[in-house]
Design goal:
seven-stranded mixed β-sheet; binds MU-OXO-diiron; Metallo-beta-lactamase, Chain A; Rossmann fold; six-stranded parallel β-sheet; alpha/beta; 401 residues; elongated; 2 domains; 14 helices
């Protein structure tokens, strides 16, 4: 049990063993943060995944009898945060479940129960004694039901998934874990969970701009409490939501007999020699989550595949399917690869990249079987094309991550 601020307790669950979160690899695990606010009518902000219930209950009991909880605020229906509401209500059956209108719909569909719902509208307030909760609906950040809860008197924001990180730790605050490590995890989280919803993120940030915030308590990972860290993460969210990138290149590829790898490595060498920051990601070795984190900060994405049975490989196809859903914008790209006797599969590679929202900067570089020095020399115009793009389309400042 940790008291974060006067009468505000962290009662969550640390998921040390979590290694995948619906396809997002989580080598550092995660946490599901629940927060207990003691007042005349105690309120619990969010719960934990179902298997963390006993631990959450034990933490609550260290502070109060759970029967005294009057409000369970469900900021978001997804089961990593609402998965324990039903069991918790067995201990406080009279408690209201506070949620957005879409939250009520979602919770009814998930649990098929007629709970004591208290549905709140945007900016509605709820007095719980000496303190006041105010609710801000944040549709599609990242579900239709998502909302943030603001504790006015102590200037604490509980924005659920927003500003979170999949990061298990014995410390609760970002500055204790190391701000650069946590910022990097927050970037990875944004790239894999929030990236498609930039417009909605901007709307949510505009709404929250009027609030004085002394602490941000997300539903995953560590909490932001120092003024400069809060300013930094909000400003990064502004940039990520605007698809503002660094002047850098991500080369993503799969390979069968090392031919596409040869092309990828020569591209890396040429771009690196031209002084452009570049990262090489073999899709067999890098996780989808790490690939997306790199795509998020890169202005240019080069993607390569060999041809297998007239198709791109299943590995690169998975990368492209994942990327299409996450909709990176304002980025440029090019394709490359090795083929045996048919180039038809490259059309798929190009179309998928375009459907991700990436504008192609030129025809793909495709070579039969094993590229020779003449083939590889044909890659030499790529750095100049990239420089041209970077000089006209990249924001002058750096440091997206
Ligand atoms: Fe952490 Fe959208 O749930």
């Amino acid at each position: 049990m940790t008291e974060l601020s006067q009468h505000i307790y962290w009662t969550g669950y640390i998921d040390w063993d979590l290694r995948t979160f619906h396809g997002y690899t989580t080598p550092k695990g995660s946490t599901y943060n629940a927060y207990l606010i003691l007042d005349e009518q105690p309120a619990l902000i969010d719960t934990v995944k179902h298997y963390g219930f006993d631990e959450m209950l034990r933490r609550i009991r260290q502070v109060i009898d759970p029967e005294k909880i009057k409000y369970i605020v469900s900021n978001h229906t997804e089961m990593d945060h609402s998965g324990s509401i039903d069991t918790l209500l067995e201990y406080c059956p009279k408690a209201h479940v506070v949620c957005s209108p879409k939250g009520e719909e979602g919770l009814r569909r998930h649990f098929k129960k007629n709970w004591n719902f208290k549905v709140v509208q945007n900016a509605e307030t709820l007095t719980i004694g000496k303190r006041t909760l105010q609710f801000y609906l944040m549709p599609m950040v990242h579900w239709p039901d998502s909302m943030a809860t603001y504790l006015r008197e102590q200037r604490i924001l509980f924005p659920n998934d927003a500003f979170g990180q999949h990061y298990a730790s014995d410390v609760r605050f970002a500055d204790e874990a190391g701000i650069d490590i946590i910022t990097d995890e927050a970037a990875k989280y944004y790239a894999n969970i929030v990236l498609p919803y930039g417009t909605q993120v901007h709307k949510a940030l505009a709404q929250l701009q009027s609030l004085n915030i002394d602490m941000i308590c997300p539903s995953h990972g560590t909490l932001w409490r120092r003024g400069q860290d809060i300013e930094r993460i909000i400003s990064l969210y502004q940039r990520w939501a605007g698809h503002i990138t660094d002047a850098r290149v991500a080369i993503i590829y799969d390979t069968m007999w090392h031919s596409t790898e040869q092309i990828a490595r020569r591209l890396f060498e040429l771009i690196d020699t031209a002084g452009i920051p570049v990262e090489l990601l073999n899709a067999q070795a890098a996780s989808l989550a790490d690939i997306m984190r790199e795509v998020m900060r890169s202005k240019v994405v080069l993607m390569g595949s060999p041809i297998l049975n007239n198709q791109i490989t299943p590995t690169i196809s998975a990368v492209q399917t994942y990327m299409k859903g996450l909709k990176p914008r304002n980025r440029f790209g090019m394709t490359f690869g090795s083929y045996g006797w048919s180039q038809s599969g490259f059309r798929q590679l190009e179309d998928n990249l375009k459907e991700s929202g990436i504008e192609l900067i030129g025809p793909g570089k495709y070579f039969q079987f094993i590229p020779d020095e003449g083939d590889l020399a044909a890659l030499e115009d790529v750095p100049a094309k990239i420089k041209d793009i970077l000089s006209t389309h990249t924001a002058p400042t750096k440091g997206v991550l």
